[in-house]
Description:
The complex is a heterodimer of chains A (489) and B (216). A 5-stranded parallel β-sheet of chain A has the order 9-10-11-13-14. Chain A is built from 17 helices and 18 strands. In chain A, helix 4 runs parallel beside helix 5, helix 5 (148-162) packs parallel to helix 6 (176-188) and helix 12 (363-381) crosses helix 16 (440-453). Chain A has helices at 14-30, 38-46, 62-71, 118-130, 148-162, 176-188, 191-196, 214-226, 246-267, 294-310, 328-343, 363-381, 392-399, 408-417, 429-434, 440-453, 462-478; strands spanning 33-35, 50-52, 57-59, 76-79, 86-89, 95-97, 104-107, 112-115, 137-138, 167-170, 200-204, 211-212, 230-234, 273-277, 315-317, 348-350, 354-355, 360-361. Chain B is of the alpha/beta class and 216 residues long. Chain B has helices at 2-16, 19-32, 36-57, 62-85, 108-119, 133-143, 155-171, 188-194, 203-214; strands spanning 94-100, 122-126, 147-151, 178-182, 198-199. Chain B has a 5-stranded parallel β-sheet, with helices on both faces. Chain B is globular. At the A-B interface, loops of A face helix 5 of B.
Amino acid sequence: MIQTRRPKVELLSAEFIEKIVDEACLLLEKQGIFVENHEALELLAAAGMKVDRLTQRVHLTRRLVESCLSKTPSVIKLYDRSGLKEYVVGGDEIHFDPGSAAVSILDHKTNADRKADTGDLIRLYRLVETLENIDLQSTALISADVPHAIADAYRLYLGLLYSARPFITGTFRVEGFAVMRDMLTAVRGSSDELRKKPLAVFDACPSPPLKWSNLTAQSLIDAARAGQPSELISMGLTGATSLVTLAGTLVQHVAENLCGMVICQLAKPGAPVIFGGSPASFDMRKGTTPMGAMETMMIDSAYAQIAKRLGMPTHTYMGMSDSKINDSQAGLETGMGAVLAALSGINVISGPGMLNFESTQSLEKLVIDDEICGMARRLVRGIEQRDEILALDKFEELTAGAQFLSLAHTRKWYRKEHRFPKIIDRDTYEAWVLLGQKSMEVRAAEEVEKRLAAPAGAPLEANKAGELRKIMMGYAKVMGVSSLPESGI
Amino acid sequence: MVREELFSNIKKAIVEGDKPRAQELARQAIRSGVDLNEVIDKGYVPGIQAVGELWEKGDYFLPELITSAECMKAAMDILQPEMAKANIKSRSLGKVVIGTVEGDIHDIGKNLVASMLQANGFEVFDLGADVKLERFIEKAETEKADLICLSALLTTTMLNQKRLIEMLRQKGFYGKYKVLVGGAPATRKWAEDIGAHGYAENAALAVKAAKAATAK
């Protein structure tokens, strides 16, 4: 059998990649980078780097960058709550997850944004559990019914209670990490088990240009020591916080992420790190950060290609839209992004469900995007050789009077070769009219309710759930919060 | 005639964002002995106004807007010391204290607004990013400011805009300084809810909002 070619997009030549990486390393060495975290600066100084403690600027040598790169795993495995199912993050494997940290939810009934509450987060987590093409969870909404001080831990807490899949998450404040780690440990059973089988990825965003804040650098160090992968989310805005050229932005992106990777490796050699990002083609008219812009997607695809060359697992924010509602723009931007991300072989693709510059999450959109992700996944499976003889022998059967539809060959392969959409409309016009002339959005809303009405998967064991509650309540009390909305649900 | 030509050259330099030329023309104006307030009113201000119009028409984008604002600043930095020396009072539309509220390090939007306000004739005191709320009030007091402009890029830090207005009320300063709010999560409704005196969704509109708030 002929080996299947995995369809692939590569925007940069090998020569161009080399030039970008060279300049990124020179930038780190000559310009240096701000690291506003004492412990990280100590680690860098101990590694022999030139550190100016007054200005918190550090100059990284290429030698250190390369030696750290050689310690960084090129493939990471995440495990679900049971520890049985593994998710490979590396190579050209792709996993979709629902965006991150949206501040509001699109309310289907009013078609307007509103703040999310505990009930919304639970619905989100339960819905994602049912989606087959969006296979990772993320703490994709912020619950406004708890104080911000505990919002980072609270969204993970609900996630671990209501979902079995691995999580993409992150901290909002330095104190948030310890409690989140404790909750993950409680679910896994022990910190050793957690280290062996990571359950969550921690996003950490440098501040462009060339700065790692105290919070994000601490997150890198903490996650590395807990054995949980960090996702480096560099996010230059072309012409606003990075150079206006796509290649210039790539240089800064690579430099910032390489510094993040170095901090992780110095904190714990061999620590799992994912090369990610959320850059954007800054809109020179509106001053906004369009995630659905083609240039944004091109930067994403290109940095992922560079990361692969560096031997790191990859992540991106693609497969989302800047539209405010589930309209054509939402579909077209999400569709293009998801397909391009898949063709770029990006391992973790955060985006589905998101609207409005990563600010809004929509359950209806998640269901629509599950279709998009399914199509993208189908695309990258490529065209496979299924039979030794492709067609000739089948035509002999047909000549003898057989029909295509009833060929054993058809029955054998049709489900493998073709996917069947759930809410994409393929009805005839008449059938569509009879069914009430429903738009995609209306069908999606119905699908959301149908999925949420179905029985939920197995809950977290009672003793673990109890332990989670205890940890969450303890943290809430320390932060001055006396009760949680979740306890009433 | 020579004066008219100078004014039109100045306007052109501002519209084209030609900083060396805008500076050179400022020096030329000083040497020629023309009334410097007139130079500003008939050369520089019409220039930045034309830039605002080009923006509104959709011909100009942020890079042009900000470059022209920087040209204005560079020229004023040359003219104003000269005017001070000659005891000529430069006209100001008002004093503005501006900054990004505490907990928030985003300053692109705030910088744009500060530049545009300054370019359009406001006296701007930019406190930077992650500014303690007390600092806004202290600075407004010492400078006898007319406006306090608050930026916030995060929904969480946006609450500090509300807190500042509450602090002003407590101190009995509400209304003494008009407060304008902006930033990605801010909306007109938010501004009204918290009792701000104005809101603008972009830097060009911020100039209009500031003019409206300081009128009469």
